[in-house]
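Notes on consecutive records. When two proteins share a document, each keeps its own sequence and its own token line. Never mix them. Below: protein one.
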Amino acid sequence: MKNITLRILTLLSFCFLTLAVTGCSVFEKKPAANNLAAAQQTAFYTCDSCHGPKNIRVDDMSPKIIGQKQTFLVEQLRDYRDMKRINPYMNGVVSKMTNQDIDNLAAYYSNYKQHQH
């Protein structure tokens, strides 16, 4: 019974995430972030809800991204966008990000401590 309940919850979670990602206006195409302020806004509205502000993560499933190497973050985000890595939520989050959006977001997180007061 416990396994069946877990499977049902997993399936429902997947369905919810799929609907949220495909139907949520947060993921609509926005202009490329060409500066720190725009990257910071993207981080706040798109990333922090799972990865956490100031690296305080919501749960143990979300990896720490603050302070990671910029090249690593760029590669991971592009792999999610290009469906080389599969995670329904992440694929949806970055699906409409341009290379410039990803570069700016990765730069923001890799240099996070420099942006804090």
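Protein two starts on the next line and is unrelated to protein one.
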Amino acid sequence: MTQHFTFKTESETVEFAQSLAKKLKAGDVVRLLGPLGSGKSVIARTIILTLGTKEKHIPSPTYTLVQAYDDTTTPIAHMDLYRLEDSEEIFDLDIEYYLENGILLIEWPQIADIHLPKNCITIEFAPSQENSDIREMTLNGIEF
């Protein structure tokens, strides 16, 4: 089931992510797709904060490839696969642990799709054609 959303402000995106976080459980994989600056990191950070991390700063995993949060209600790995050159490199990021015991939030997941479960949750952002501040989002894989 494909669901469409339009967010006019970042706070609307945050409210959506807070609600989504409460629906996630161990084994869930959230694929975050969209151009730079589209809202992927806002979604990931909000989910991590909503699930209880005590971290004050939630950095982007752009350079580290993965940031792990084991102080949340369910362990979370926030991954950014933009810089991966081969799909097999995802196994160096402890993906198996989070597939079994935690939640995976993956930005730029396309390179590793072959290794991800078929039932992933996919959030795809696209800039609005009418207004660059508005975000259009498509959600698949979870009832909202």
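For the record: Residues 2-140 form a domain with the Rossmann fold fold (CATH 3.40.50.300).
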